[in-house]
Specification:
Structural class: alpha/beta
Order of helices and strands: HHHEHEEEHEHEEHHHEHHHHH
Radius of gyration: 25 Å
Helix content: 40-55%
Low-confidence stretches: 25-34, 366-386
EC number: 2.8.2.-
Protein name: Heparan-sulfate 6-O-sulfotransferase
Catalytic activity: alpha-D-glucosaminyl-[heparan sulfate](n) + 3'-phosphoadenylyl sulfate = 6-sulfo-alpha-D-glucosaminyl-[heparan sulfate](n) + adenosine 3',5'-bisphosphate + H(+)
Strand content: 5-15%
Subcellular location: Membrane
CATH class: Alpha Beta
Number of strands: 8
Bound molecules: 2-acetamido-2-deoxy-beta-D-glucopyranose
InterPro entries: Heparan_SO4-6-sulfoTrfase, P-loop_NTPase, Sulfotransferase
Amino acid sequence: MKIYRKIIWTTLFVGICIVVVSMYFSNLHVNEMKDLYGVLPKSDFETYLRGMLPQNNFSQTELERDYHFDAEGADVMVFLHMQKTGGTSLGRHLVRNLDLHKPCICTKKKKRCDCLTKKNTIWLFSRYSTGWACGLHADWTELKECVEDAMNRKEGFTRKRRYYFISIFRDPVKRFLSEWKHVRRGATWKTAELKCSGRSATLEEVPFCYKDESWRGVSLDDFLNCPNNLARNRQTRMLANLSKINCYNKTGMSEVERDEKMLASAKENLLDLSFFGITEFQRYTQKLFEYTFSLKFINDFVQFNVTRSDQTKITEEQKRKILDVNRLDIKLYQYAKDLFFQRVREMKRRTKDYNPIVDHIVANTFDDSSDYAFSEDQDQEYEDDY
Ligand SMILES: *[C@@H]1O[C@H](CO)[C@@H](O)[C@H](O)[C@H]1NC(C)=O
Ligand SMILES: *[C@@H]1O[C@H](CO)[C@@H](O)[C@H](O)[C@H]1NC(C)=O
Ligand SMILES: *[C@@H]1O[C@H](CO)[C@@H](O)[C@H](O)[C@H]1NC(C)=O
Ligand SMILES: *[C@@H]1O[C@H](CO)[C@@H](O)[C@H](O)[C@H]1NC(C)=O
């Protein structure tokens, strides 16, 4: 009798244990599924750290971009090219790789190409076509204030034009590290005009981080610690309407308020761009561009692979600091990436190429082990940025 009781109790105990453990795991499973589908509410910053995407509620008109770009008509494409975002490679595709009735004419020796219509009007405003006609790496604020006049000057007459602003964004941590390496090699971009509301930023407003000609050889820690380093939150600043925050004059507003307004403006302008790509996703950037403008590229964009040898070794402390000083860019990037993938999904749905699971996994791919979307060689190509 006693032995039976023992067996019953043991069975009961083991049974309960199994139930408890399996409940725990099934619960975990549910949470993981929620993670996979991004249902759990989290801040944009938190989603970035966890390799997830936020789920913003975009309207149908924000997701559907379907222009029939008419180069021969009034249409002009304006490329907002921020430093170290992979803009050089997109810029080259625009002048050399688009399948047009009248392609840009590029000559071997010259860096620039002539991108003209049959009527000899200009359809592309970018570094490789018009040059830096609104200043070196002109930002949104500068372009909006300048493009119309610059186009009149370049063409030699005024006419009715319809502008399509485009840009490309990159993972902020990778971009920041890439800019550091570039500056360490001697780049300064000190001729950037930083114009806003009709004048350039003064040296008092934006002091240089270095005393000599350049910041060559700068360590990552020094690069991180300079408060006026324009590399910080570069993508947010270059996309925002800086007139809304009194340009580079920081005295009239708290830092918190300034940051909030700048990010809100950048998000608003992001929605207002005709198109933007994400450097980490070259193929989707290509496809979405083609779909948006009803244009085709001749050769497919190359998705660069990352190898272990490309990685930059940084400490946890440095990583934490990079995240901290690029907080706005991370929020903007998460917002942009979410919008980008919702647009890709919308495109696929309409071209009957839609797989929700695959798309979701691709969108949430966060390869923490790689610091570069481009290899070091690819990065070197941007040497001529300044
Ligand atoms: C998203 O927006 C739509 C329309 O504006 C609204 O009906 C819906 O409740 C919103 N959903 C969420 C989760 O905010
Ligand atoms: C930028 O903001 C200023 C100040 O709010 C506004 O007057 C201006 O129209 C804005 N620029 C553009 C191009 O929307
Ligand atoms: C900066 O803005 C404040 C008011 O917000 C103004 O008093 C000050 O003169 C401005 N500084 C410069 C250099 O324009
Ligand atoms: C990247 O890797 C994939 C799969 O390993 C390969 O098919 C592709 O050709 C590679 N791309 C480049 C540019 O090396």
